[in-house]
Amino acid sequence: MELRQLEYFVAVAEEAGFTRAATRLHVAQPGVSAQIRQLERELGQPLFDRSGRTVRLTEVGEAVLPYARAALAAVEGARLSVDELAGLLRGRVTIGTIGWIPSIDLPGMLAGFRRDHPNVEITVVEEKTDTLTGGLRDGRIDLAFLSMGSEPPEGITTQVVIEQELYAVVGRGHPLARRAMMPLRALADEDLICPPKGTGLRAVLDAACADAGLSPRIAFEAGEPPVLAQLAAHGMGVAVLPEPAARARPDDLHAMPIVRPRLSARIALAWR
């Protein structure tokens, strides 16, 4: 899912038509239609009812629209934050991140800032969310992209950039590969492969299990989603991953949304 797709989706929803949206965006109408079809394929559901004279949102489209607007607003907030730092002529800026996030062009933003302000030293640190949060609080980090649960860290201002549904992932030969969905209570009975404590995804999983009176059985911990996926592909257990990582290897992994309740992790831009 790309930010451009979300921008086109919001424009079509607000303009109630592809042609008007294309005019607003200053692009060709076929390009808008192609991006919306791609987004619908990725989501697996139609976002617009095209049967009438005007384009209307489907029920799924209505549900997606506020999240799309929030994501675009958050990215604009990130750009504004970087622009605010552009007032520095020389000095040092430290930016933290949980990892390179594909849908946010952080390297591109940093490269542009560096070109305009070569006397400002930029440091990027990659850490777990709790370490980044501590760095924001004590001033070692100026700005950070965090993964978090439903509540922001105390004393930290956040703007959600991305919200991703959590999936249970198993190898194609696993007995659970016949399931379409994975209830949380059933998931707690399996050997789990998940990020370590101190990460947003793990906080979401632990909180949901605690609310349900469950004690998850953690078999393996790893910080990088590709490693978790590889362990699941080798039959070492059930990996808990955000949706994009869960669907990245369809040939050897079976992905199931976690339900009852559905869980999601969020990536947020954070500062103090």
Structural description of this entry:
33% of the residues are buried. The radius of gyration is 20 Å and the shape is globular. Strands 3, 4, 5, 6, 7, 8, 9, 10, 11 and 12 form a ten-stranded mixed sheet that branches. The chain folds into three domains: 3-71, Arc Repressor Mutant, subunit A; 76-161, D-Maltodextrin-Binding Protein, domain 2; 164-264, Periplasmic binding protein-like II (D-Maltodextrin-Binding Protein, domain 2, 3-Layer(aba) Sandwich), CATH 3.40.190.10. By secondary structure, the chain is an alpha/beta fold. The mean pLDDT is 88. The protein has helices at residues 3-15, 18-25, 29-43, 59-85, 106-116, 129-138, 184-187, 200-211, 225-233, 243-246; strands at residues 48-49, 56-57, 91-97, 120-126, 143-148, 157-171, 182-183, 191-194, 217-221, 238-242, 253-259, 264-271. Helices cover 42% and strands 26% of the residues.
How would a textbook summarize the main sheet?
Answer: 10 strands, mixed
Any idea how many domains? 3
What's the overall geometry? Answer: globular
Helices and strands, in order, run as HHHEEHEHEHEEEHEHEHEHEE
Chain-averaged pLDDT: 88
Radius of gyration: 20 Å
How many helix segments?
10
What is the CATH architecture descriptor of the largest domain? Answer: 3-Layer(aba) Sandwich
Total number of beta strands: 12
What is the straight-line distance between the termini?
A: 29 Å
Q: What would CATH call the class of the largest domain?
A: Alpha Beta
Q: Pick out the low-confidence regions.
A: none
Strand content: 25-35%
CATH superfamily of the largest domain: Periplasmic binding protein-like II
